[in-house]
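Postdoc handover notes: sequence design on the structure in folder B. Input tokens:
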């Protein structure tokens, strides 16, 4: 192998591929990053058996070849090179020589034959606006759980239909859902579990969804692949894949209420700021009370030992006044996913979940949050 490549592009590609190189690999060979040079392109890949990240950049290839080097060391080296100079990579025996400006570094290669085969992407299920999918994926994945003992709750479920992708995630306390328009492929190839799907459901690891959001730019049309075992998103020059999780999430349609006793509209940023003003008084599990009346929402919390605080924001209310208790961290997390100046908060009773969404966009993103049962909510 011998090639010359723009250093800034090489560093960006290596940083992306490194996302799938495990910090504590179950097998030493998985600490490697695969480099493949051919047809004046360089393909860099990382893989941990469940998740792969790949990046391709144009370069000048003098000698084609494929090799494996330590992913973290390689990435740290090229990130430190001067971006104004090109980098040359040359395989010399069993060592890879990196040259950039006055820097010349020899890096030992790893046994390529021991590296597992990267998952093949069999075809395309459909296409989607990259920026729209990135925004929805980030908002929904915020609700995915982190408890690995309940693996299904660490995932984001994709429901595929003729016109939309519905993304959903829950940790049992909050439930986020977003709709994304897409265009399913008219023809798909493949058999069995390797056949791209255009209908159905798939439970994708939350980390893979977050990584997918990172490669989706404002101008990108993304290709989405879902099979019986694999999820993949690709844009020009970047790919991410993940093995699907077993299980399924609870059906959100049955959990999200459609009739409400009280509906409040308020400024999104103002309510978030009010919550932040009082939160320093609270521990992780301490409750926060919202007193909702026509004209304002009062946010209050605290104890005699820790201190008490309150703040008020303007709100318009349709229906009955109420007081309801939430975990402030979960409430704030859901509120921060609403990218609109005005939020609508829909209540049934103080003991049942509340539904939040942008006042003028009820179907783009919506978040359901469970209240806390509290013995007293008197002020």
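Designed sequence:
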């Amino acid at each position: 192998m011998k090639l010359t490549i723009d250093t800034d592009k090489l560093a960006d590609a290596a940083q992306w591929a490194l996302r799938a190189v495990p910090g504590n690999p179950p097998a030493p060979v998985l600490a490697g990053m695969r480099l493949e040079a051919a047809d004046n392109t360089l393909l860099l890949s990382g893989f941990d058996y469940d998740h792969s990240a790949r990046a391709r950049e144009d370069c000048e290839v003098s000698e084609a070849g494929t090799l494996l080097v330590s992913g973290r060391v390689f990435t740290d080296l090229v990130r430190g090179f001067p971006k104004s100079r090109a980098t040359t990579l040359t395989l010399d025996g069993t060592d890879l020589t990196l040259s950039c400006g006055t820097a010349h570094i020899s890096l030992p290669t790893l046994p390529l034959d021991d590296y597992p085969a990267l998952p093949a992407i069999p075809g395309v299920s459909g296409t989607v606006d990259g920026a729209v999918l990135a925004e929805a994926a980030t908002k929904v994945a915020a609700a995915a759980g982190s408890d690995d003992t309940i693996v299904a709750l660490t995932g984001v479920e994709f429901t595929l239909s003729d016109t939309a992708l519905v993304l959903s995630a829950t940790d049992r306390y909050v439930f986020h859902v977003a709709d994304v328009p897409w265009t399913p492929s008219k023809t798909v190839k493949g058999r069995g579990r390797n056949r791209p799907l255009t209908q159905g459901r798939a439970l994708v690891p939350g980390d893979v969804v977050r990584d997918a959001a990172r490669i989706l730019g404002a101008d990108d049309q993304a290709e989405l692949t879902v099979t019986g075992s694999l999820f993949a998103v690709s844009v020009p020059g970047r790919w991410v894949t993940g093995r699907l999780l077993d299980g399924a999430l609870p059906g959100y349609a049955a959990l999200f209420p459609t009739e409400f006793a009280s509906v409040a509209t308020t400024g999104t940023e103002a309510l978030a700021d009010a919550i932040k003003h009082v939160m320093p008084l609270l521990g992780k599990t301490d409750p926060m009370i919202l007193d909702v009346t026509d004209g304002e929402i009062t946010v209050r919390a605290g104890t005699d030992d820790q201190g008490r605080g309150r703040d008020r924001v303007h709100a318009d209310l349709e229906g009955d006044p109420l007081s309801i208790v939430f975990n402030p961290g979960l409430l704030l997390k859901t509120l921060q996913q609403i990218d609109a100046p005005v939020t609508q908060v829909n209540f049934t009773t103080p003991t049942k979940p509340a539904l939040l969404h942008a006042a003028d966009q009820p179907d783009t993103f919506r978040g359901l949050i469970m209240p806390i049962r509290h013995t007293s909510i008197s002020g």
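Context for whoever picks this up: The longest strand covers residues 307-319. Don't rerun without checking with the PI first.
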